[in-house]
Amino acid sequence: MKFHCPHFRSGVALTCFLAVLAMNLNHLPGLGQIGVLALALLLGLAARILLHIPELQETGIHFSAKHLLRIGTVLIGVRCNFDLLVHVGPRIIIVVASVVIGGLVGITWLGRRAGLSETLSLLLAINTSICGASAVASVAPTLRATKEEVALVIPLGSLIGTIGVLGMTTLAHFFQIAPLSFGVLAGASLQEVAQVIAAVSVLPASIDSGVATKFLRVLFLAPTMLVLGFFLMRKALRTGDSRQGGVYALVSSVWFVFGFLIVGVLHTMMERWGNIFFMARLDQVILSLATFLMAMAMAGVGLQVRLERLWQQGLRIVAVAFIGWLFLVIIAGAEIHLLHLK
Asked: Does the pTM of the predicted model rise above 0.90?
């Protein structure tokens, strides 16, 4: 059994160490907006440059990058509360649906027009439209994305999100914006939960609407993975790729999505009928565990990246990511204005 192999355990231990380091660095001023997952990935990249990683450790590193990632994806289902669909109202649901669908279609199209690969274009679209690093990490196995593609998209998304936070806070300081409008705009356009909270904190009355809008975007992660898995299966069947076609291939690539949904449904039921203080504590514990496992996975991804392939796409990926984010801000702003969210 590989679990009894010391080299396997040392590979897993290395990703664990980097994840712990990333979670501690995340508490330092300025680094919190980057996010634990992006920090863990960057630490993995740095470790690959600075350390000699024995080839025998690759099995343990690969285990963290693949299997722990999927377990973490299942556990982040606790972010989902399906009662939220009832409480936020139809207008905010329309804004979020427009942003997610418009972003997925528009940014993917823009990436393909810019000459990026289909997978890289989809990763950029998912990162910007849904929930940043956690969405990219969760969808990457379904898309069969390379580690180099993941290592490009996640830090770039964190950088653009941080710029977005600065832009949002500047907007709030210089213009009179209704708290509901500002909260929905931030929640619908910024990638990470921490970025949304940082932005809306300058206008405290907008915190509830900002966080609710952001969590509503998270709910789109599961259907996005299922739809992508279905279309990839259809594409594989048309091209005769037996490795990727068939129902078994679909289920094996998205089984953790069903786990994500089950956890979300159970969480919704417990939120409805359970003790609110107990549930808040339980949510915190499960989310911390999920974040830690996904940070180990991202450290594993960084440790396996072939650095010479990272910048082959040049400035095109930066341009597509930034223009795509501005596109989402415009969609969200237009919907907020048209639906009179004030």
From this structure: no
